[in-house]
Amino acid sequence: MRVPMIAGNWKMNTTVSEAMELVNEIRQELDEIDNVDKVLCPPFVSLAAVKELIKGSSIKLGAQNIYFEQKGAYTGEISPLMLAELCEFVIIGHSERRQYFNETGEIINKKVKAALKVGLKPILCIGESFKENEAGRTEEVITEQLRSALAGIKYPNGSVIAYEPVWAIGTGKAATGEQANKTIGFIRQTIYRKYCTRVAQETRILYGGSVTASNIAEFIQQSEIDGALVGGASLKAGEFLSIVKQTSEIGVFERD
Ligand code: PEP
Fold it and tell me: Do the Cβ atoms of 208 and 125 come closer than 8 Å?
């Protein structure tokens, strides 16, 4: 049985005080929902403050990025060891990092390995561009992204995968539930082929890309979709709460 997950990727938004304000607005209601994993991914500088605010609650914490070395002369970078003291999850391979920071499959693979080494659970983002989608190359692109990200990893211990078609991120143009379900089913098959039935059954695969309170139901109703990685809508307290509540009402059923 996979517990549905809603993760909020705040991206490069909120100062520390704004982050604290947002957490204060949603903390109590989120905490009361116990059949969904709720993960907040604020910017690095707010992780410690948010950790303190959610202490004793059922809300979990994630970072948005990681460096692949554990320590050393890498000015400005944040290491897995540092994050392991603060949070449980870390987003790796987001399309914005692939696009703006030239993260390759090889770098993403190093990051996934470095996270797993210290017990952090990667939320590994994969997804095709508009052009690739139009050319009918979605499955080919996803197969390659999974192959490179998971190369040499014997067991992806607690890793979560987020299928985020690049054309749907921040555009207001979400995939349909049916499209996302089909691709996520394909991702699960790929995980099964690389690992085994158990890993394929226990790995949560989320949809991400313009998820809002108005369309979350369409995704959660699908048999393969275990939740969502939410960007823009996670910055609005009421909207994020509604997404989590709807997931709690619809999304809890045997998923195997
Ligand atoms: C994201 O940041 O992963 C994302 C899916 O963004 P948005 O929900 O704003 O499309």
Answer: yes
